[in-house]
Design brief:
This protein is an alpha+beta fold and 171 residues long. It is 19% helix and 37% strand. The strands form 2 sheets. The chain has a 7-stranded antiparallel beta sheet with strand order 4-5-6-7-8-9-10, with no helix packed on it. The protein has a 3-stranded parallel beta sheet with strand order 1-2-3. The longest helix has 17 residues, at 19-35.
């Protein structure tokens, strides 16, 4: 017989938990421990780091390992199906100049055209997978590519002059 399931609907699971999220996780832990019920957290906000956050809460014992989390954006993008595909790789072009900077947590690469104008700003996560790429035209940021937890293109954000997003294209 299949276990009963209970669903917890949340907007997000962020890097820092809210009181509502903490209490929901405690409630979920009690469902697993005392009622033999399978909790599933369903999140609706776009957050490419949500699984990293979730896994940290599992590792730290805040949420039980038997509780699963589904993010609707990743679900409809079918991200999990592509986990064995290779991550996106930046190809170095001879006509561009590169400035590579590494910190403890991230790697930053600035890409300049033949006139020494910034055309791309590339950020890698600490696990060496792409996080995002900002594209510039005439000194203004115009587009941002964001990558999922497997380093594959998740979505592209098109930006206004004030860097707010006016359109997002999902893949």
């Amino acid at each position: 017989m299949e276990k009963k399931k209970v669903y917890f609907l949340h907007s997000n699971i962020g890097q820092h938990l809210t009181g509502v999220e903490k209490s929901a996780m405690k409630r979920g832990n009690m469902f697993v421990k005392y009622l033999d019920v399978e909790p599933v957290f369903v999140t609706v906000n776009k957050n490419v780091n949500i699984h990293t956050n979730w896994e940290r809460y599992v590792e730290n014992g805040i949420v039980d390992r038997d509780i699963s989390m589904v993010n609707l954006f990743e679900y409809f993008q079918r991200s999990e199906e592509g986990k064995d595909l290779p991550p996106f790789q930046i190809k170095k072009e001879q006509t561009y100049g590169y400035e590579d900077e590494k910190s403890a947590e991230k790697r930053h690469i600035r890409v300049f055209d033949a006139n020494n104008k910034l055309v791309k700003y590339v950020i890698y996560k600490s696990n060496k997978l792409l996080d995002y790429i900002n594209y510039f035209h005439n000194g203004k940021k115009i587009v941002r590519d964001r990558f999922n937890r497997f380093g594959q293109l998740s979505h592209t954000e098109y930006l206004h002059d004030d860097n707010t997003v006016y359109m997002t294209e999902y893949f």
